[in-house]
Amino acid sequence: MIAEIIAAGSEMLTPFRQDTNSLYLTAQLNELGVSVAFKTIVGDNLEHLTGAARVALGRADIVIFSGGLGPTEDDRTREAVAAALGAGLRRDAQIVTAMYKRFAARRMAMPENNARQADVIEGAEVLENAVGSAPGQYIDTVVGRHRKIVVLLPGPPRELQPMYEAGCRPRLAATLPQRHIAKRMLRMALAPESQVDARTAPIYKLYPDIETTILAGSAEIQLHFFCSKTTAEEAQARVDELVERVEQEMGDAVFSSHGESLEEVVLLMLGLRQMTLAAAESCTGGLLAERLTSVAGSSRYFVGGAVVYSDRLKTIFADVPEETVEREGPVSEAVARALAEGIRRRTGASIGVGITGIAGPGPGAPGPDAGKPIGLVYVALSTGEGGGGTTVAELNLTGERERVRWWASQHALELVRRSLLERG
């Protein structure tokens, strides 16, 4: 059984507003074992809304509308759905009376156009709005030879969510066949999407009953697995079986199999080994520290660090020799190495990370860094273990300033994770 969510409102076709109700509704429908196959945004145009409703009724079992139930002329959802169903509209006298009482309680006169909110589609059950004035509607009908459930909900989330939970969800739960959905997600840092798919597609294609989605972005690849079965145990076992096979194929490239972020995983691994981390950041400007400290309890394993944007602070806070900066330039392997080693010594952390680079918008400054390109970044990791206790990675990143900074922080976290894995 599949659903379509239609958000009505021209404001969501501008750069200034976006549909968030569909995220909530998708999660709610998934809990009932219903997959959301389509999401549509339609402006406040009766013809367009009617057309979208007809298309949805032709391809989905459940169609949920949000928005367009207000009192103004551009609120056309009721009329559009009625036209798509070939049903009439009637004005419900009880709803009109309740609205008059609502306005009277506030010592306000009800504008005449508010009565439009009492127009109910033939055959619909009215869903009470405990927060606002626009009631919802629930229609269980037959279109052609197929059963369809159509739901009209108000647009404001503070009205939509309690209405769905009190009036819509119980009806759906009592009506729909019992299905359960299991989900899993695998996350891999810095892995090329095409390579991940080339290695995993031969595996997940063997599971046609599991929907697999690959998402690439923010310097990581996510594999989402989604399975619907008659029992929760059956669905979960099926998804877990596929996840296990994909993990075996991808090995250490997988940093999370239950949705944890890379920073959460790094902190967990530090905790298991009773180790601590400190960072000296230049081009990332504290982004690595921000990501780590966004995790509750991170203070036990991330001791802190320094944002050493200027050459002078590199020397003061991380003990980088002035002559190294002058000779090699602040964006260099030598300075990254000195940052990692210096911050580790100054803080007493088990591991020190140093990051320096050129994030843009311009290339390297005059001096030793002149001519060094945007995106050149050095990430160093120091463990203080003998002569080979420091490693440095040279990165040549592409994109705008914020992308370079994020990828640099991702490389740093992945470097720490890989180092901890080697320790067992």
Short description:
This protein is of the alpha/beta class. It has helices spanning 21-31, 46-59, 77-85, 93-105, 157-175, 193-204, 232-250, 262-272, 287-293, 311-318, 322-328, 333-347, 401-423, and strands spanning 2-8, 35-42, 62-66, 89-91, 119-121, 125-127, 136-143, 146-153, 180-189, 210-217, 220-229, 254-256, 277-281, 302-307, 351-357, 376-382, 390-396.
In CATH, what is the homologous superfamily of the largest domain?
MoaB/Mog-like domain
CATH topology assignment of the largest domain: Molybdenum Cofactor Biosythetic Enzyme, Chain A
The dominant shape is: elongated
CATH architecture identity of the largest domain: 3-Layer(aba) Sandwich
Residues in β-strands, percent = 25-35%
Distance N terminus to C terminus? 46 Å
Widest sheet, order of strands = 2-1-3-8-7-6
- Please report the first level of CATH classification, the CATH class of the largest domain: Alpha Beta
Query: What is the helical fraction, as a range of percent?
Result: 25-40%
